[in-house]
Amino acid sequence: MPKTPELRYYLLDLEQITCPIAGDQFDPDVVEALTDNLLACGGTVHPLVVKMVSLDKYQVIVGALEYHAALRAQQKDPSFEKIGGYIVDSKNEDLVRSQLAILPSALQPSDRQPPVPVHEPTHSPEDRWHGTLDRFEQTCAALNRTLDRQSQSFVALQDAVLHSAIAQSVTGEYIMGLIENQVRTLIMQELEKKPAVAPQEIKVPASRYTIVELEKMSVSALKEIAKVLGISGCSKLKKDEIIGKIMAIQDGANSTF
């Protein structure tokens, strides 16, 4: 036989509850007395039994008197917003109704009995404590599952970011290496294509150079001639200055001219 879902105790918002039995079917004095008692106790020792009729909406199955007394208590003290109750569903509603039919406290005003403040048997404080502890454990388990999912998502994201960073780093180094190798190859190719320039042969004639001949020469050729003639300090001189020094040496003037 499949296991029937256990009844769970909850604190229900009064605004989420409706009742098919009108409050005027109960003795006003009884309702008022129970109202004052609910305010004094801070709640009912007899939880309602309700069923879900829509999302976050419930209908009273048992406890109509307590429900109307709670509404009256809320009118007197707006902070009185909740009342304890059990929520039944389609899987255990018939069993709960069968149990209520056996209990004398299941009599409703429609049975034409005098409306007296008779309460259904209540659970002991220990039972209610266990019910609260069960709900707390379920909430903790749900939070742990949520944290586990978030932790797994964070680890996956961290791995993806790390792999992406590594891939970008490797790719960048690889591309830079290719560029460096390509540039080196191009430079070597250009060097291989460019013929070596033979040093210009400087002929020092037996006779002196004329100024016309010197002016036709390049600066580098003039510097070589000056070097052969023992003229120093020509690296920063202009062409006409070098020519002047060469002419002065040839004319037998002072080399420091």
Strand and helix map with partners:
Blueprint: E1 9-13, E2 17-18, H1 28-41, E3 48-54, E4 57-62, H2 64-76, E5 82-88, H3 93-102, H4 125-193, H5 211-216, H6 219-228, H7 239-250
Parallel strand pairs: 2-4, 3-5
Antiparallel strand pairs: 1-5, 3-4
Describe the structure.
The protein contains 7 helices and 5 strands, in the order ββαββαβααααα. With 257 residues, the protein is of the alpha/beta class. It folds into 3 domains: 9-121, Conserved hypothetical protein from pyrococcus furiosus pfu- 392566-001, ParB domain, CATH 3.90.1530.10; 123-196; 211-250, no CATH class. Strands 1-5-3-4-2 form a 5-stranded mixed sheet, with helices on both faces. The chain is rod-shaped. It starts with 8 loop residues before the first strand and ends in a 7-residue tail after the last helix.
